[in-house]
Every structure is written in structure tokens, then in C-alpha cells.
What we know:
Blueprint: H1 5-29, H2 37-49, E1 52-53, H3 54-61, H4 65-77, E2 81-85, E3 93-97, H5 99-119, H6 125-130
Amino acid sequence: MTLQEETSAALEGRIAALQRVLRRLAVASVRPDRPGVALQAVMRMIAEAGECRARDLCSNLGVGAPVLSRHIADLEEQHLVIRRPHPEDRRSQLIALTEAGITELQEAEKRRSALLRRALDSWSETDAGTRPQSLTGSPTR
Length: 141
């Protein structure tokens, strides 16, 4: 059974609304002295992939090499990632989170999760699992 165009459009709208709310949560959870949303996204991709090549990160994040290079340099300066030569291809490098990077990412995820729980504090477990309407309002109330 194929999806009707209207159903697909409605679903896309709900996903877009959810993305906006999640983005607000992410921005609200950033501490001024710590990596911002973009750097956290890079760290999350590295955490999911494990040690990986920059070109794979570019592809997964949908960013160009110059943008990623700046992000990696920023993270490296903060001792949150480490680069090493790829053992099979000396022209490329492998990137991994440091222990400090893993800790930083876990703390950022805890802050976002706490904000989401506060935004949904009036919802029951059943509501959270099945509530069809999109999220509205400020995630930092």
C-alpha cells in the first residue's frame, strides 16, 4: 500500500516541526563555554561511527570538507577529538573522540534530555509514546 500524497505531506510537516523543536532544545542546552550545536553534531557522528575518516563525516553530515575541517580543528583544540594517520591510506586521517570528548557529548545529551523532559512534563508515558500533535511552545519553560 502506498502513501497518499496528502499523508506524506502531513508527515513531512510533523517531522519538520519536531526538528525545529529539537533544534531549539539543542540550542537551549548549549553552555557558553562548551561546543555549540554544530560541533556537538560532529561529535555525535563520530561517536556513532567510531573512529572514521573525515570524508565519511562530510557525507553523513551533509557539509563540505572546509566546514568539517574547521569543526575538527576546533574540537581538536579543545582536546575533544584526536586525529591519526589512516594505517592503510597515509593521505587520509582517522578521527576519534577523546575520553574528554565522550564525557562532553554525554553531558550535552543529558542537558538536552532534561530540557525535553521539562518541556513534556505534563505528558504521561502513554502520551509521549502516542500523542499525534506536534510539540509547541518553548522547550525551556
